[in-house]
């Protein structure tokens, strides 16, 4: 038994899990005036939330499974998120090549009509039919198609910015800190948090606990939380490959396959195409998920069946896989499993409540967070109203990427334009904080390669919970696609020197 530590700091809310749901809930709760602590056993967005298809979308294919409520909510959220995070989320047009033997044109038109009208569109244009010609990147046998709108998102930065928003409102965010024991003692939870590197144990108390552990949401009941899991989850693996760009069009493509699945081919980091995803049931450790040879072949095959430019394994610059913790609705196939979410509240009389988050998708994270905090509002009579639909995420307080780039170019004319463009799309108005104290190119410090200057690295270490090169190269930026091994080792050596000197916590 854990000893009751009356001197332990008391929080209104302990959130376990630093993915998009956990960080979204922490940001919502803190902005309503609750005292919040969030702990994540690894880096923020280290698992599922950094391994998505990078889309804010309604889910056109979910209409085939009659998930109209989920699609309507997701479509409405596109508009909200485009407004509050214009630096990391922006509109993207999708082209759907028509294959008559897979889905009739009438069925696609009906689906796109619903997609256009299930929720109010403000910024995004409607769908339309299109014809492909000799200048298009598709094979010549495909002549007809459709075009519609959704949005792109830098998924891992969305998580980090929500953690920053929570911190701005007073939350404590602890990364690389494992919640190793939680016990109810009357109206409070007693928790032990273990810092992964030092082994230091922190004892805290909390009025409520949120289990937002993603792929570990059910196993947390076996290892840490009391009682059995109230819901079963189905782990579904989604994998992606990154190749040199297949075309110069600004649009993404959505490809239908013979197995009724769809695969996206998305413009990625200017010079690449992101191809994915798969849907494969997964049984192993979520921390060890990886793309399989069969999935790689699947993605190469469908791309080559549509595009003139053929690719092989030798073209793959990067691959990744993530495990989606979906509600187990006993669907026959992984692709048919619902992407909806369910909140399970365990609140015995006069005992501290526990809220567990099952399922969800990145597009609806804000609505899930709002619903989660609303469920806990009864335990906090003085809680404020939800404000996340109006509050810009950190760095998102500007109207236009073009205008912001113009403004930053005037203030920081010594920064290469390509680097400033990346800053706008990653940090927005936080760029001024990143570049604070820099008045010439020398002040930017060492260039570790491809415009990753020391000033940016230092900012990420000091303000965004980055601890190592992988945190910076794959989650805070995507420069891991560009830096070679020697450059990455040089970056890691710099970080370690700073940590040893005590400059970085």
UniProtKB/TrEMBL annotation:
**Any single Pfam family the record assigns to this protein:** DAO
Q: Does the keyword Oxidoreductase apply?
A: yes
Q: Record's PROSITE patterns?
A: FAD_G3PDH_1 (PS00977), FAD_G3PDH_2 (PS00978)
> What are the required cofactors?
FAD
Q: Which Gene3D superfamilies match?
A: 6.10.250.1890, Alpha-glycerophosphate oxidase, cap domain (1.10.8.870), D-Amino Acid Oxidase, subunit A, domain 2 (3.30.9.10), FAD/NAD(P)-binding domain (3.50.50.60)
Superkingdom field:
Bacteria
Q: Which reaction does it catalyse?
A: a quinone + sn-glycerol 3-phosphate = dihydroxyacetone phosphate + a quinol
Which GO-annotated molecular functions does the record name?
glycerol-3-phosphate dehydrogenase (quinone) activity
Query: Domain Alpha-glycerophosphate oxidase C-terminal: where?
Result: 386-485
Annotated ranges, domain FAD dependent oxidoreductase: 12-365
The protein's enzyme class:
oxidoreductase
Arranged from A to Z, the UniProt key words for this protein are:
FAD, Flavoprotein, Oxidoreductase
EC annotation? Answer: 1.1.5.3
Per its UniProt record, what NCBIfam families does this chain match? PRK12266.1, PRK13369.1
Q: Which family does it belong to?
A: Belongs to the FAD-dependent glycerol-3-phosphate dehydrogenase family.
Which PANTHER family has this protein been placed in? GLYCEROL-3-PHOSPHATE DEHYDROGENASE, GLYCEROL-3-PHOSPHATE DEHYDROGENASE, MITOCHONDRIAL
- What protein name does the entry list? Glycerol-3-phosphate dehydrogenase
Source organism: Rheinheimera tilapiae
Q: Which gene encodes it?
A: glpD
